[in-house]
Specification:
Layout (H helix, E strand, L loop, with lengths): L1 H19 L8 E4 L3 H18 L3 H6 L1 E5 L2 E2 L28
Parallel strand pairs: 1-2
Antiparallel strand pairs: 2-3
InterPro entries: Malic_NAD-bd (IPR012302), NAD(P)-bd_dom_sf (IPR036291)
GO molecular function: malate dehydrogenase (decarboxylating) (NAD+) activity; NAD binding
Organism: Neobodo designis (Flagellated protozoan)
Length: 100
């Protein structure tokens, strides 16, 4: 299920980038939901971007913003972060800005 959904969404994102004539490095992807399905979808988009635009995965990950029930997924927010969210946790948000 996750792979199928990811493939459909990744195709949509790739087509939107092509139609808009923009490079993924100039875009931001915001995903409301940070469960395993959302991360699977983002991974699928990342695979398409890496293959089509020769963009390193690390650079793609920097353009992704995951939101969950507690807000933006960051490394500085209180509490433990689920393992599948760690790779996408923002490091550029100060602790005092969490939840704003």
């Amino acid at each position: 299920d996750i792979q199928g959904t990811g493939a459909v969404i990744a195709a949509g994102v790739a087509n939107a980038l092509r139609l808009a004539d923009v490079h993924p490095r100039d875009q931001r992807i915001v995903v409301y939901g940070a469960g395993s399905a959302a991360v699977g979808v983002v991974d699928a988009i990342g695979a398409v971007v890496a293959a089509k635009y020769e963009m390193p995965t690390e650079d793609f990950v920097k353009s992704v913003y995951l939101m969950d029930t507690k807000g933006l997924v960051t490394t500085t927010r209180p509490g433990e972060l689920a393992k599948h969210k760690e790779r996408f946790a923002r490091t550029d948000v100060a602790p005092e800005d969490n939840g704003k």
